[in-house]
């Protein structure tokens, strides 16, 4: 009598939440100022902020969204959307903040800062507060409309 050896089926790696680097993958939302609706994609919690910005820009371009942003990640800042905090540092890990919602915006250009200052609005370049920046832009826009 021969015994048949039954091999256990090999387990598939069902832990898709673990990447090869060893961190958990999480779904994040990135709102881009000036665009409709957030971008949603999976990232590793260990990924650097710079890599997340790069992924967001590629996803944004692939979807054909407007306005066209460009692809140089050095021209953009990423903020946590639910807190008034500084711009996230490119070398920090995205998972270190414990949040999943972010705001991406293009760094203001030199001419924008000069124009803002000429209009009598404090233009603190690099102040790191995206909500204040958005309020300044709204104020400039409303002054332009009321002057015509």
TrEMBL record:
Occurrences of domain DUF7054 (ranges): 24-104
Domain of life: Eukaryota
InterPro entries referenced in this protein's UniProt entry, alphabetically: At4g22758-like, DUF7054
First and last residue of the signal peptide: none
Name of the molecule in the record: DUF7054 domain-containing protein
Native organism: Macleaya cordata
Lineage: Eukaryota, Viridiplantae, Streptophyta, Embryophyta, Tracheophyta
